[in-house]
Design a protein that fits this description.
Layout (H helix, E strand, L loop, with lengths): L12 H5 L2 H4 L4 H21 L4 H15 L9 H15 L6 H15 L12 H21 L9 H11 L4 H13 L10 H16 L17 H16 L20 H13 L7 H9 L2 H12 L3 H20 L1 H73 L5 H30 L1
Helix pairs in contact: 3-4, 3-5, 4-5, 5-6, 5-7, 8-9, 8-10, 9-10, 10-11, 13-16, 16-17
Length: 437
């Protein structure tokens, strides 16, 4: 037979009995329950994420392989299950985002542990811790696997075997279901996929009482042994005899999928549960309105880390202050009115100053605009003067070319024009000076 897989990760019965979990004091029943529970999480999350069956099968095999090298006491089964689904979705080319995986596992835990269904805030510290833990666990899985994560499932052999044996159609679905259930056990790390496929076919045929050829034995054609087939059937029968798997807290880091923020939430929620909603005393309200920072800080610190005794003392003080406030309501109202008047006066003062500043800025802008207009008028007059001078020069050049007879007349004309020019320029200059002045 030609093997195209790299499935070299197989353990014997003795190695499974001496697993890291057993060395940490976890018995066989607890380890089996946790393995089944993790595989159930992977199967259910794959259905919710709408992943194909190959992704869920690959995730379950990676889950079993990881716990053959690491202990359940050091790695949380829920986190490893989530990272196995995330890694398997990439390996089987059906990737899902980390956000989707975390939301699904958070919801499953809330439903399984009878916790209130809370929305997982994507911008909270809780989500960031879960995302970091997910990627960290994925790196642990890859390191333990040596980055060889290829998995060959028995499903692809079942249809070929049944077609060769010419069995009825209903046997195929039963064998497929048994193959899915076999992934919850350690068969994937004990036998090759061909042996598991033969054991599944044999169990399905025995259930439907379908005869299979035994002379020669049919399993010899598929490179399997009778002892392996019997072991597969025994493990499947033991699986169906077990009750529904529940989570058993054995991990040292934390037994909850959302453990990263659980202790912090319990500290913050301890005080509101013990202290009911009661109105604060009048003195504290007055100090807050006056802006006393020291008292506010001391109250906030006491509210965060208060013990039950301190909370009871505060309750007594608040009740006394409530009684006093009921007896003297006029003093509080007078204080509040005085504080409101002071605030309103403080607010009106800067408003008047702002209006004055705005008026001053407007006057400055107007003066600047006037100066600009004056400068433009003076520039226009200068341009006119230069244009007139150019015309006069041209006329002078023309007059030189004319005859001697017209010299006296031209001189008289020029003299009169010069007089007019000087008079006009003198008047324009005086106007500019007056305007600037």
């Amino acid at each position: 037979m030609i093997y195209t897989a790299i499935d070299t990760f197989y353990l014997t019965e003795e190695q499974l009995q001496n697993s890291p979990s057993r060395k940490d004091g976890i018995d066989e029943a607890t380890e089996t329950t946790l393995r089944i529970y993790g595989c159930d999480l992977i199967q259910e999350s794959g259905i919710l994420l709408r992943l194909p069956q190959a992704v869920m099968a690959t995730g379950q095999v990676l889950f079993h392989r990881f716990y053959c090298k690491k202990s359940f006491a050091r790695f949380n089964a829920k986190k490893v299950a989530a990272s196995s689904v995330w890694l398997a979705s990439k390996l089987e080319e059906s990737p899902r985002k980390a956000r989707q995986v975390l939301i699904v596992f958070h919801r499953m835990e809330c439903r399984r542990e009878n916790l209130p269904l809370e929305h997982l805030d994507l911008y909270s510290k809780k989500y960031l811790d879960l995302k970091m833990e997910l990627s960290r666990t994925e790196r642990h899985i890859l390191k333990e696997m040596g980055f060889i994560c290829h998995v060959e499932h028995p499903h692809k052999f079942i249809s070929n075997y049944l077609a060769t044996l010419e069995t009825p159609a209903e046997l195929r679905q039963e064998a497929w279901n048994l193959a899915n259930d076999s992934l919850r056990t350690t068969l994937s790390v004990q036998f090759k996929s061909e042996v598991v496929a033969c054991g599944v076919v044999y169990a399905a045929a025995r259930r439907f009482q379908v005869p299979l050829p035994e002379n020669p034995p049919w399993w010899k054609a598929f490179d399997a042994e009778k002892s392996g087939i019997d072991e597969v059937c025994r493990v499947l029968a033991q699986l169906y005899s077990l009750p529904k798997a529940h989570y058993i807290p054995v991990c040292k880091d934390g037994d909850s999928f959302t453990f990263s923020n659980k202790s912090w939430d319990s500290q913050t929620q301890a005080l509101p549960k013990e202290v009911p909603n009661s109105s604060p005393p009048a003195d504290t309200n007055a100090s807050i309105l006056k802006g006393d920072p020291g008292q506010a800080n001391s109250e906030s610190i006491g509210a965060r880390g208060a013990l039950p005794k301190v909370a009871s003392d505060k309750l007594k003080e608040s009740k006394k202050s409530d009684d006093e406030s009921k007896s003297m309501p006029t003093d509080e109202t007078a204080r509040d009115e005085s504080m409101l008047k002071l605030k309103s006066e403080r607010k009106t003062e800067p408003i008047g100053e702002r209006s004055r500043d705005r008026d001053r800025d407007r006057e400055r802008d107007r003066l600047k605009a006037r100066d600009r207009d004056r400068g433009r008028d003076s520039d226009r007059e200068r341009e006119r003067e230069e244009a007139e001078r150019d015309k006069i020069k041209d006329r002078r050049h023309r007059s030189r070319d004319r005859g001697k007879d017209s010299e006296h007349s031209e001189k008289s004309k020029h003299s009169s024009r010069d007089r007019d020019y000087h008079s006009s320029s003198y008047s324009s200059r005086e106007k500019d000076r007056r305007r600037h002045h």
